[in-house]
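Sample entry was shown:
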Amino acid sequence: MGFVMPKEVAVEGVPDPKSDGVPVRKRDGGRFAVIRFSGQMDSKLSKKQEAKLRQWIMACGLEGETKAEAAGYAPQSTPGPLRRNETLIRLKQPSDESQTKQVSDE
């Protein structure tokens, strides 16, 4: 589980964790392909959405990193259909800037 702090908060310094078991680390930015979906997050749903996202990445001629990340934005008490989840895959940088393309969901 992780928490993302807004840039403004991070610049001033994040609060110290109350437990030594909670590490604080900086995460590098970058370009990500993201698919948003609702439902109760489990490994089956997560893998299904990751597969859809990887197909989309390939169809766009892009290349993604091996590791996918899952993100959930609702408390456990939120009913499944109302939960907002995302699967994120970091995109590899093209070797040539001319290969960069703008991609939309049209």
